[in-house]
Amino acid sequence: MNDQDLDHRVRLATFHFLEEQTQLRGEVLPREILAQGFEFDGQRVPLIGPQGIFKPALLHETPLSITTVPEVEGKRPPYDDQIGDEGLVRYRYRGTDPGHRDNVGLRLAMQRQAPLVYLYGVVPGRYMSCWPAYVVGDDPRGL
To answer: pLDDT value at position 102?
Structure first.
């Protein structure tokens, strides 16, 4: 199986997992469930990690999910992600290097039209998942 076939199958399995979990638990999922993820061909596939742009080890190039952390009173969020009036999320790059592997992965997801999972932090430890989400623009100068 080539990398793109594997990528496609993992994404479909991810969406199926999220559908099951939202039916069981509701629209807002605990981080523990997302971090545990599911098993695919004998390998665990988590949906969330310590970084906002997350690619599980099973995937080779494009991330599986992007996360906006919840607001915490008195604490500034690490990135200024915004949801615009048109319903599009303006997701910030990781750091200041447009060539960072995570940022390159998002760009590749845009070029391949790879569906992602967008995890929006509602409160600490709880996330609303939106899928499929697509990268539709790229602004490396807007770091």
So the answer is: 85
Nearest to 30 by CA among 135, 121, 136, 137: 121
Per the structure block, which two tokens stand in for 121?
């932090």
**Which two tokens mark 62?**
């494009």
pLDDT tens for residues 54-74?
999 999 999 999 998 887 777
Q: Which long-range contacts (CB under 8 A, 24 or more apart) does 108-112 make?
A: 108/61, 108/62, 109/62, 109/63, 109/134, 109/135, 110/134, 110/135, 110/136, 110/137, 110/138, 112/4, 112/62
In the block, residue with structure tokens 């994404």: 11
Q: Which of 119, 125, 16 is nearest to 133 (CA)?
A: 119
Write out the two tokens for 85: 């009036």
Angstrom distance (rounded) from CA 85 to CA 25: 29
**What digits encode the pLDDT tens for the residues 29-46?**
999 999 999 999 999 999
Give the closest residue to 62 by CA, choosing from 141, 137, 134, 142: 134
